Amino acid sequence: MNISVKSFLTGKNLIQYLTNAPSKKRIILLDIDMIPMNGLSVAKYIRNTLNDYSSEIIFVTGTNGYERDLFGVRPSGFIPKPVDYNYLSNTLSNVYNRINAEISYFHYSQHGIKKSIRLDDIIYFENMNRKIEVVTTNQTDWFYQKMSTLSKQLSEHSQFIVCHRSFLINSMKVVRKNGSKLIMSDNKVIPISRKKLKSVEKSLLNFL
Q1: Other beta carbons less than 10 A from residue 40's beta carbon
Q2: How far apart are the first and last CA of the chain?
Q3: Does the pTM exceed 0.85?
Q4: How many CB atoms lie within 10 A of CB 149?
């Protein structure tokens, strides 16, 4: 897993970055006593306004009495002040290992070479004659497989649905539904077949 570290002087700066940044798994350390916008307010914005429930939030705090308010933002840990760096390191390692264990991959083969892509990165699959094209947030690749076989392979991952005989989409990458069309996060417009319309609408209710 590739890791990058970014720091922000204020909660507002962090929110501005997250608003424009692509969705991904993150560990966010928040000082609960920072000003002018405290860590709890930033966490509530991340969860309730940005609808980000996948990032792991860890609070750095020397203050008691926030327990009830913190429950609503599902924190992954607390670092007491003054910061003990061994405690900090252990907390980050535990959260990192949990994230790493949760990540699922899609595995496929291309000319005998085994490849894998994070499921969370996949936007959609498109059936192009005998070839399946997979479009992700950062690349496009292909492999040979029947769409029916691919659908069965992904059946345990409910976010993936067949909306058309030529498309299997990641519901979490749908920006909006416009009639019988889906607008994806990469601006691709994907049709919904008439016989799939009701089942697609029902499935999307869990993700939109």
Answers
A1: 20
A2: 28
A3: no
A4: 10
- Other CB atoms within a 10 A radius of the CB of residue 75 amount to 20
Q: pLDDT tens-digit profile of 10-51?
A: 999 999 999 988 767 789 999 988 889 989 999 999 988 988
CB 180 within 8 Å of CB 191: yes
Beta partners for residue 27, in sequence order:
56
Q: What angle do CA 76, 118, 17 make, to 5 degrees?
A: 55
d(CA 138, CA 12): 27
Rg for the chain, CA atoms, rounded: 20
Residues 93, 101: contact at Cβ < 8 Å? no
What is the token pair recorded at 52? 């980000």
Amino acid at 92: L
Measured CA to CA in angstroms, residue 51 lies from 18, 29, 98 at distances of 11, 18, 21
Half-sphere CA count of 82, side-chain side, radius 13 A:
0
CA 86 to chain centre: 29
pLDDT, tens digit, for every residue of 41-96? Answer: 999 999 889 888 778 899 998 765 555 456 567 788 888 888 999 999 988 988 88
Q: What is the DSSP letter of 41?
A: H
The CA distance from 204 to 201, in Å, is 5
